[in-house]
Hints:
29% of the residues lie in helices and 21% in strands.
Amino acid sequence: MTKAVILAGGKGIRLKSLTKKVPKPMIKIGRLPILEHQINLLKKYGTKEIIILTYHLSEVIENYFKNGNKWGVKITYLKERKPLGTTGGLKEKEIENKLKKDFIISYGDVMIDMDIARLLAFHKEKNSACTLVLHPNDHPDDSDLVEINESQRIIAFHPKPHLNNKYFRNLVNAGLYVMSPKVLKYIKKGVKADFGKNIFPKIVKKEKLYGYLTVEYLKDVGTPARLTEVRKDYQSGKIARLNRKNKRRAIFLDRDGTINEATDDIYKIEDFKLLPKAAKAIKKINDSEFLAIVITNQPVVAKGLCSIEELTEIHKKMETLLGKERAKLDATYYCPHHPNKGFTGENLDYKIKCDCRKPKIGLIKKAEKDFNINLKDSYFIGDSFRDILCGKNAGLTTIWVRTKDECQKSEVKPDYFFENLSKAVNFIINQNKKLN
């Protein structure tokens, strides 16, 4: 049984009058405080022993939850004598002595609804010293970003502000961790510190840290605008709907010619340029409950024009440019293979027949598994017959954009045709408004 530590000592200064008499984690979402939502979620996934670290108005929290019996859990408290950042009082003897096995840490001002059992299984599978829940957001420009490799191991942290000539994946620390007790040795007792800014960057090369990627609901209420948004999402049922146990709908997007300008093979980062209105279209997907997922053939790797690392940099540029316009991608899946040999300088390791090159549906099936997607109610938008055939093979509704003449000549016919991504997305969103 996994224990949990909830960090609930923040003053909530940006919420002004709301936190004068009520600590930030006790602000209500619906009829319940955020802390109560967290405790109910933890109990649902088997956690029955919870430690709450407090500071500001700690008596409000303790008087409300007492020993936790009412919620079917055991709750103990530690009130910090002075603010100690997100590392809190974990090094206090009475707390550290209780943390002999891997445990969960959550920030008390984050509204969460996610499949914690899957998170714990990932942490165990990776034999991780600490697993950070990561997700994309719509403001990576002013966020601390986390970099992972192909196996999802964290390799770097990139604090804001970011350099203008650097590109990063849009992955943000969501404020929920699964942590081994071995991490505690890097925290100094009585010293104010922050996990994201001080501890994790210091140990990323010493310990195995992993990023668990999810598009489930984790959002802090640190500002009045975010609090309003979270309350709205709760009232609409969106928070519960985004739990991974529920099927999600997706809009699958081709890359070249759909999101960015299509020239010949793009293998130089300077050649990648977004199409006009592409970011606004993807932002519109983000504002709906559809996932925005890229499915792209990138034979430039097999042809020897660029490496996987160079292709990754191009995709970082794509995420950075979209982020500057407050748009995000939930995932990007690519096929680096090419079946035909005979190119000068080709990479023979990738000259294979695979199940991931469109029009085959290997990448879509992987996304379906990763995100629990309902393919029947999802869409594929692309600019070639391969995209449309791939979408049809997967049982998706298909939309062909931009290359009207090619569309008319092809034997593969889409369900719909629009001039560009923006018009295609508008059609999908408006059509689903009518259905709802």
